[in-house]
Amino acid sequence: MQTPDIRLLRSFLAVARERSISGAARLLFMSQQTLSEQIRQLEKAVGVPLLLRGPRGVTLTAAGERLAAGAAAVAAELDALVDEVRRIA
User: How many CA atoms lie within 13 A of 1 on its CB side?
Assistant: First the structure.
């Protein structure tokens, strides 16, 4: 298994918040197809399904719920670290 790219995690977090790939794609200014491919890449990287796709949006699997919680913390920590590094410089 490979470690997921932070870009994929941020895209997944948008989908998790919106509960919709098309809604998240609009927020991220990307095509729905591109975002869907990123989610597939993330699912491949972690080795488990993260979303249940339906006609009215998506539902997170139990693994998806856990990843969303953890990824939010990781993204926030990374943002804080980058801010700190910039202040030092």
Answer: 9
- Where do the structural domains in the chain lie, given as residue ranges? 6-88
pTM for the structure as a whole: 0.90
Which tokens in the block code for residue 43?
């699912």
In CATH, the architecture of 6-88 is: Orthogonal Bundle (1.10)
28-84 pLDDT, tens digit each: 999 999 999 999 999 999 999 999 998 888 999 999 999 999 999 999 999 999 999
CA separation for the pair 48, 62 (Å, rounded): 10
Identify residue 59 by its one-letter amino acid code: T
Collapsing DSSP states into helix, strand and coil, what is residue 2? coil
- For 86, the token pair is 């910039």
